Amino acid sequence: MVKFITSTFTVLVLTVAMVKAQSPINIADYPPVNQVPDTKSAQVQAWLKEIDLTGAPALPLHSGAPPACPNPPIANECYWTCDGCAGDDITACAAPNTWGLTFDDGPSTFTPTLLNYLKTQKLSASFFLIGSNVIQHPEIVKRELDEGHHLASHTWSHHALTTLTNEEIVAEMKWTEKAVMAATGLRLKYMRPPYGDINNRVRFVLKKLGYIPVDWTGDAFDTNDWRQPTMSEATVIATFTKSLDTYVAGPKDKGFYCLEHDVNNADVTVAQKLIPLGIARKINIASVAGCESDPQPYQAGGTAPMPTTPGTNSTKPSGTTRSGASPSGTGTVVKSSSASTVSLNGLGVAAAAAVVAAAGALLA
Question: What DSSP designation does 71 have?
């Protein structure tokens, strides 16, 4: 009983610390939604003073949404969408036979429907968040985190990054980071460039900010959900079914990342029809954090206890989540409490004790 009380108190302290780490979001304190932030603002100027952009590749800005491919190609640009050059971006799930489940452009009013579905299926996904949407729906972002999903950045305004200056890229990333920090206390670590629009200049700036770019695994794993209603739902399903069948027939030594969205009803509806196709083919499902076996899927410097990585979700008929470390090393599943320990986002009592002092400061 004493151990139970101690564990419960620790969880209570951590929970209160998490709440204290979050701060109310006043939309007026942020840039206009869906617009590239002003780089002359005091906040952006302060961020720029913290970052050394010296040595950034001197590549010309592109134009368009998405930009047209330069003709001829620009030397040493390593432009993913046009040259097929990914640099050191993550383009495939590191775990074999695994679908890296990702959703872009949210949160939206349709995201809760998707979250309800993922919860019933016991699945974890990565949500690449647009900062402009985060400040409008912070409660959805909190729910995504609470239900074991992984949060990542999709910039502030969804502008193609190769069309922006280095300073504008910093503003796009940092305002989104600030919004998610206010909502969750966590500092984002992974990002996906809008339209997959990334080259060596963009990569340079992102690395300076501590971000890891995650593309998707080529056109075959673009679900085309964004083409609806120009492309019918039936065609979307048929096209992606062929991609899954081709994948299953191959070596499956690596997994794949898909391109899906949670911005409207059509996206969310078709996602609930595509995911069962992977489950039926016994493809495991994981978030980016799970795919990459990253036990710390957020950057240091947040104000909340850092969650651990959820493991891969098995597609066994039972639909249960693997406990402990998965055979493919895709992370550790949060275990239930025992007589001697309670786990909160993967933190046991011993580990939690290390943050009690910090929690006390937050409570003061």
Answer: S
Alpha-carbon distances, residue 239 vs 156, 216, 232, 235, 245 (angstroms): 31, 16, 11, 6, 10
CATH class, range 79-332: alpha beta
Q: What is the pLDDT of residues 209-233, one digit of tens each?
A: 999 999 999 999 999 999 999 999 9
Q: Are 298 and 187 in contact (CB under 8 A)?
A: yes
| Active-site residue identified among 62, 150, 159, 261 | 261
267 labelled catalytic: no
**Does the active-site annotation cover 88?**
no
Strands 126-129 and 102-104 turn out to be parallel
Q: Taking the alpha carbons of 201, 206, 212, 215 in that order, is the dihedral positive or negative? A: negative
DSSP tag of 109:
T
pLDDT at 353 over 50: no
Q: What is the domain partition of the chain in residue ranges?
A: 79-332, 334-364
What is the C-alpha to C-alpha distance for residues 166 and 138, in angstroms, rounded to an integer?
28
pTM of structure: 0.82
User: Among 89, 104, 197, 215, which one carries the catalytic annotation?
Assistant: 104
